[in-house]
Amino acid sequence: MKKFIDNVIREKKDQFKAIMGKEQRVENMIEDLKNLNLSNKKLEEVIKVARKYV
User: Fold this and answer.
1) Given this model, what pLDDT does residue 21 score?
2) Which domain holds residue 49?
3) Contact criterion met (CB below 8 Å) for 33 and 46
4) What residue ranges carry the coiled-coil annotation (predicted)?
5) Is the pLDDT of residue 6 over 70?
6) What does the alpha-carbon distance between residue 11 and residue 33 come to, in Å, rounded to a whole number?
7) Which residues contact 46 (CB under 8 A, 6 or more apart)?
């Protein structure tokens, strides 16, 4: 039983790390897009494409 609990905890930690990693990448991508100074129309196009993959 203890091994099972340890495995579940380890699995949840890995899932949490993956989620946090995705959030960090998205935040970095947002900062990069802000630095590009795109027009609103271009930014809308980028957002449409990004939504397909997120």
Assistant:
1) 77
2) 2-53
3) yes
4) 19-46
5) yes
6) 33
7) 33, 38
The angle at the Cα of 37, spanning 33 to 42, to the nearest 5 degrees, equals: 75
Report the predicted TM-score, pTM, of the whole model to 2 decimal places: 0.45
Residue 40: phi, psi to the nearest 5?
-60, -40
Percent of the chain with pLDDT over 90: 0
Helix 40-53 / helix 2-36 crossing angle, nearest 10 deg: 160
**Which conformational region is residue 19 in: left (phi greater than 0), alpha (psi within -120 to 50 degrees), or beta?**
alpha
The pLDDT value recorded for residue 46 is 81
Using the structure block, give the residue that is written with the tokens 């939504």. 51
- Number of structural domains (the chain) is 1
Supply φ then ψ for residue 39, to 5 degrees: -70, 160
